[in-house]
Design a protein that fits this description.
- It is built from 6 helices and 5 strands, in the order βααββααββαα.
- It is mostly helical.
- The chain has one domain.
- The termini are far apart.
Length: about 160
């Protein structure tokens, strides 16, 4: 299993009948924006259980893990604190979020690459945290609207010119 998120259904709904005109580069741009939104929201401490749902606070950290994080404060990413549940200890997981595959009408985003000094890949860690009750790699209802606005703003001139 993978922590990747195939946002193709959302994109097809977004472009409707125009999806046949959406090329790889446009899909990649949409995926990059979706990934950015997920990173920002997650660093603020919120997760989403599936695409289109409302965001909710990520599950609290265990007492033992809070103690561990406090003891290893110097190893923490600059965008977190020992008590904040935001999937950021070293920052590698969220920093690795990217477009894994983009082609006409389809885009998949998720964590990627190896983790420095660990056996797990970022994708495996992403799946582990999701299985542990901290789902993050989905677009909330508000984020889907933000991606839609991004697409309209970025590609709206194509619609006006009749290219899509």
């Amino acid at each position: 299993m993978s922590a990747a998120n195939d946002i193709t259904r959302f994109v097809k709904k977004l472009f409707g009948v125009f999806d046949r005109f959406v090329d790889d580069a446009k899909m990649r741009a949409i995926g990059v924006e979706a990934s950015r939104l997920i990173k920002v929201r997650t660093r603020l401490g919120y997760g989403v259980s599936s695409n289109g749902k409302q965001r909710k606070k990520l599950k609290k950290l265990s007492d033992n893990y809070l103690i561990f994080r406090a003891k290893h404060r110097d190893e923490l990413d600059s965008e977190t604190s020992p008590e904040r549940s935001n999937l950021t200890f070293t920052g590698q997981l969220l920093n690795s979020m990217k477009v894994k595959k983009a082609k006409k009408g389809s885009v998949i985003i998720g964590p990627s690459g190896k983790r420095s000094g660990e056996r797990l890949t970022n994708d495996e860690l992403g799946q582990h945290v999701e299985d542990a009750g901290r789902p993050f790699n989905y677009l909330s209802n508000l984020e889907t609207k933000q991606v839609e606005r991004f697409a309209r703003k970025t590609f709206g001139d194509l619609v006006k010119r009749g290219n899509i």
